């Protein structure tokens, strides 16, 4: 079968951020081929060049990014460098790691119709194809929604819908598993199967979670440090497991054990850190005819608990986390943090009590370098310079940010940006830590470092609330879980540990020892 993608001796250097300093190597001498109709996977640790490679396939590199290119990429008969982005977009459907950046139309239906209009498809056929795409991705109910007001997973589904609507020759999706819930991922897999049968579409997926690629990929490219170090098949997941683990790629061949949440009697004598008291929330632009985004949510997180907020895409997880630091106000009910009614506080006032990392870390960056970014919060709270420097050093070591500590955080890979955002929260030493999908897009090594550190802080007394759909993570680390479904709390209680135990690292010298006594460490 003919190759549809040819990458030949491709090198890419990002222009130095801000115009000064050395350019940053994104790719070195990368070569690979993908046959028409194949499913190819790109894997590798955080910052290894995966996104850079697929951006070069979609033409974002070199057309929309500053830097210098060697070698070439061909898609079918087109040389990417000499083809315009708009011509490429007719043949290549691309979904990057931040779907928000891609959605430009006012409504979901218009977003999906746009590539069809570009191809000059007749209006009646556009209607039918939009309906088909919405049905394949099970997002018919989002049809008339404003694209800017969707949850992150909903945005990802719409971006995938827009990418496939025009029946591209090649579909590229960068880390879908980090944003889609299980059903959403199944829908994506199904769409890829249908399109491969219908039009012999080729699919390229960048993934940290390799479960699907291990079962189905025809070609696998392993990247390390900007190079493709293996061009192989799904055999790599059995034959070269130790190599993959040594570079930080998760090799998981079993499905996660289903999460069991045991119903708990409310602890009347407990010492609550965060109380959700019959909370209702509705976004200002949500029509009154629709159900509220949070509907009578009531539970209490005790001090020292490690709580997961779980549920599918759009169930209200991020909305709930945004209430804790007053970023969002409930329209009814009350949130109490360490005895203080959040209604009486601003987000800035809440910063001493609660450190929050949301799903879009890049939004919060404002400093010139990673070091300044991490030190910004403690400095604003009046922590002295020596202590700020000590804490920043600890975070740089923890997340292995030595190579990028002097770069602006905005110029890092998505996983590196997430690591910086998490460092900015951990460095605050707040009594309550709230993390929205913290491990999404981190490689195996960074994910376990992060979670082991958070578990250690939890043993030292920090209350942790983490929005995630990762059942394995919840069973390993969390003491309790709250499950949301369409804005309603459907269960809250202890997590059954399924016999797995988290091995806690020894407490850091001079820091208060474990005090919650709840057996959170599993
Ligand atoms: N600004 C907004 N205006 C109107 N509706 C919104 C807004 N933001 C979110 N929603 C809706 O609120 C609901 C809950 O969204 P939320 O982001 O809390 O879900 P989530 O569980 O975090 O989802 P995901 O897993 O996709 O991140 C969704 O139906 C979403 O479409
Ligand atoms: N816009 C940019 N400007 C400068 N350097 C960049 C830019 N984007 C990425 N880089 C650098 O290029 C390297 C590769 O980044 P890339 O985003 O391709 O990695 P990745 O493997 O996709 O990582 P992740 O899993 O974290 O998404 C990283 O070291 C990163 O810091």
TrEMBL record:
Sorted keywords for this record are:
ATP-binding, Nucleotide-binding, Transport
Judging by the UniProt lineage, the source's domain of life is: Bacteria
The cross-references to Pfam families, in alphabetical order and at most eight, read: ABC_tran
Instruction: Output the Gene Ontology cellular-component terms.
Output: ATP-binding cassette (ABC) transporter complex
Kindly give the InterPro entries that the UniProt entry links to this protein. Answer: AAA+_ATPase (IPR003593), ABC_transporter-like_ATP-bd (IPR003439), ABC_transporter-like_CS (IPR017871), ABC_transpr_CbiO/EcfA_su (IPR015856), ECF_ABC_transporter_ATP-bd (IPR050095), P-loop_NTPase (IPR027417)
Q: Which residues form the ABC transporter domain?
A: 5-250, 274-511
What's the protein name? ABC transporter, ATP-binding protein
Family, as annotated: Belongs to the ABC transporter superfamily.
Output the Gene Ontology terms for molecular function. Answer: ATP binding; ATP hydrolysis activity; ATPase-coupled transmembrane transporter activity
User: Mind giving the lineage of the organism this protein is from?
Assistant: Bacteria, Bacillati, Actinomycetota, Actinomycetes, Bifidobacteriales
Membrane-spanning residues:
none
Q: Tell me the PANTHER family matching this sequence.
A: ENERGY-COUPLING FACTOR TRANSPORTER ATP-BINDING PROTEIN ECFA1, HEAVY METAL TRANSPORTER
Looking up Gene3D superfamilies in the UniProt record yields: P-loop containing nucleotide triphosphate hydrolases
């Amino acid at each position: 079968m003919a190759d549809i993608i040819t990458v030949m001796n491709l090198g890419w250097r990002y222009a130095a951020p801000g115009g000064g300093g050395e350019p940053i190597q994104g790719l070195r001498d990368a070569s690979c081929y993908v046959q028409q109709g194949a499913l190819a996977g790109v894997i590798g640790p955080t910052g290894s060049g995966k996104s850079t490679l697929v951006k070069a396939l979609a033409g974002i590199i070199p057309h929309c990014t500053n830097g210098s290119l060697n070698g070439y990429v061909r898609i079918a008969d087109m040389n990417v460098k000499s083809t315009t982005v708009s011509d490429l977009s007719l043949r290549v459907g691309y979904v990057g790691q931040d779907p928000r950046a891609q959605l430009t139309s006012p409504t979901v239906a218009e977003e999906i119709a746009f590539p069809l209009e570009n191809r000059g498809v007749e209006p009646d056929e556009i209607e039918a194809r939009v309906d088909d795409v919405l049905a394949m991705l099970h997002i018919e109910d989002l049809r008339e929604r404003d694209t800017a007001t969707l949850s992150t997973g909903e945005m990802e589904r719409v971006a995938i819908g827009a990418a496939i609507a025009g029946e591209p020759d090649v579909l590229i999706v960068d880390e879908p598993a980090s944003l889609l819930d299980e059903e959403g991922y199944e829908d994506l897999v199904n769409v890829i199967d249908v399109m491969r049968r219908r039009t012999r579409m080729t699919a390229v997926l960048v993934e940290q979670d390799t479960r699907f690629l291990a079962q189905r990929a025809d070609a696998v490219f392993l990247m390390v440090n900007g190079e493709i170090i293996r061009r192989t098949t799904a055999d790599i997941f059995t034959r070269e497991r130790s190599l993959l683990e040594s570079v930080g790629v998760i090799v998981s061949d079993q499905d996660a054990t289903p999460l069991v949440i045991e119903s708990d009697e409310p602890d009347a004598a407990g010492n609550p850190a965060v109380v959700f008291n019959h909370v209702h929330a509705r976004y200002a632009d949500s029509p009154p005819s629709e159900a509220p985004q949070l509907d009578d949510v009531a539970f209490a997180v005790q001090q020292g608990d490690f709580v997961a907020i779980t549920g599918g895409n759009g169930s209200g997880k991020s909305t709930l986390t945004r209430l804790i630091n007053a970023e969002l106000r409930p329209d009814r009910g009350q949130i109490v943090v360490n005895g203080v009614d959040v209604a009486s506080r601003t987000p800035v006032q809440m910063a001493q009590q609660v450190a929050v990392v949301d799903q879009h870390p890049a939004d919060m960056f404002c400093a010139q370098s990673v070091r300044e970014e991490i030190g910004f919060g403690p400095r604003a709270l009046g922590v002295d310079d020596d202590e700020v420097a000590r804490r920043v050093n600890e975070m740089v070591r923890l997340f292995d940010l030595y190579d990028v500590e002097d770069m602006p955080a905005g110029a890092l890979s998505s996983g590196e940006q997430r690591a910086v955002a998490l460092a900015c929260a951990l460095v605050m030493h707040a009594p309550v830590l709230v993390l929205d999908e913290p491990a999404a897009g981190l490689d195996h090594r960074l994910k376990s470092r992060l979670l082991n550190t958070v578990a250690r802080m939890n043993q030292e007394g920090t209350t942790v609330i983490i929005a995630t759909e990762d059942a394995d993570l919840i069973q390993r680390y969390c003491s309790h879980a709250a499950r949301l479904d369409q804005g309603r709390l459907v269960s809250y209680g202890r997590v059954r540990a399924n016999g797995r135990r988290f091995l806690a690292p020894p407490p850091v010298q001079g820091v208060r020892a474990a005090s919650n006594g709840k057996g959170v460490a599993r």
